[in-house]
Design a protein that fits this description.
This protein is mostly helical. It has a domain of 101 residues. The chain is 75% helix and 3% strand. The chain is built from five helices and two strands. It has a two-stranded antiparallel sheet with strand order 1-2. Helix 4 packs antiparallel against helix 5.
Length: 145
């Protein structure tokens, strides 16, 4: 399997793993709290967690993925390939084409890395929020998993 394919498969697997880590915890009313009381406590703990962590889960969920800024990897790769093609094999056109392909692969890898980093930051923020939420709910007598 080629290196870019392995990278892409690894990135996809990591995104699924990270996405699963930042899910809302399951709450059980361990002291016989009513559904109304649980709903009230849930709302208060949500607000408390939002205030104390500075993280708004709705805003985090709506954050768009990073957009690739044109970095010129393909053009730089073509230029390098043309120089190498001229120096080595007297074929600047073939070298430029090969360099552009390599530059395009580099651009895709950079974009995948940026998206992976952004997803990791979202997951970390949500994990922080839900840890605060869980602490609040536990403090009110709920079992949290």
């Amino acid at each position: 399997m080629s290196n870019p394919k392995r990278f892409a498969l690894g990135a996809v697997a990591l995104l699924f793993t990270l996405g699963a880590a930042a899910q809302k915890p399951v709450i059980y009313p361990a002291k016989g709290q009513s559904a109304q009381q649980q709903q009230k406590d849930d709302g208060e703990c949500y607000s408390w967690s939002k205030t104390n962590t500075g993280i708004d889960p709705a805003a985090v969920a709506q954050t768009p993925p990073p957009q690739q800024k044109p970095g010129g990897e393909r053009a730089r790769g073509a230029a390098r390939g043309a120089v190498v093609g001229e120096v080595v094999g007297d074929n600047p056109g073939g070298g430029a084409a090969a360099g552009a392909v390599v530059g395009g692969a580099r651009a895709r890898n950079n974009q995948a890395a940026q998206q992976q980093q952004a997803q990791g930051q979202k997951t970390q923020a949500m994990d922080t929020f839900y840890r605060a939420y869980a602490a609040c709910m536990e403090g009110r007598g709920y079992t949290v998993k």
